[in-house]
Known about the structure:
By secondary structure, the chain is mainly β. The protein has one domain (3-184). The chain has helices at 82-92, 99-104, and strands at 3-12, 32-45, 48-49, 54-61, 70-77, 107-116, 118-123, 126-131, 135-141, 151-152, 165-177, 182-186, 189-199. The chain starts with a strand and ends with a strand.
Amino acid sequence: MAYRIEGKLLEVCTCKAICPCWIGDDPDGGTCEGTLAWHIDKGAVGGTDVSGLTFGMLAHIPGNVFSGNWRALAFVDERASPAQEEALLSVFTGKLGGPIADLAKLVGEVIGVERVPIQFDVEQGSGHLRLGNKVEAVLESARGPDGRPTVMSDTVFSTIPGSPAYIGRAPKYWAKSEGLGIDVDLSGYNSVQGNFVFEG
């Protein structure tokens, strides 16, 4: 089943800016509690249109990002039909290959999949993300002397392979999951925004 999806990424974590995982270093503090969310502006998986939907993940990363064994809680947009949910899970669990499959291989255990209301907004370099009652984050891009967003590209690790990433800090990052042992309430830590096109 072929797929093509394109959209935007919001990412926050407990590393200080700039997140060392993107260059293959160990996370600050030895472990990382991160949230990723991909909003699909347009796309289809097989014959299923998934435009306008968001898929998210809250993860405990126990060490170097490439060592894997992540434990994760997945979030599916509550507006998704059963067919759309199946399509999203097929892509983001790596079953359909493509660039997202390499990221999916790092997840050793998915403790659950929750259908939740998702808020995903990006406007003029700032973002706001809410995943049900488990995650809320506000993201702001770092900017250069001319006011343009600071960009990373060609990094050894990426949650949006092949695309540049706009780095910054999150004025707010709140996340809680008893199943993952995560209880985070931080300000000023790592945030990343970007665009993606995934095909498989």
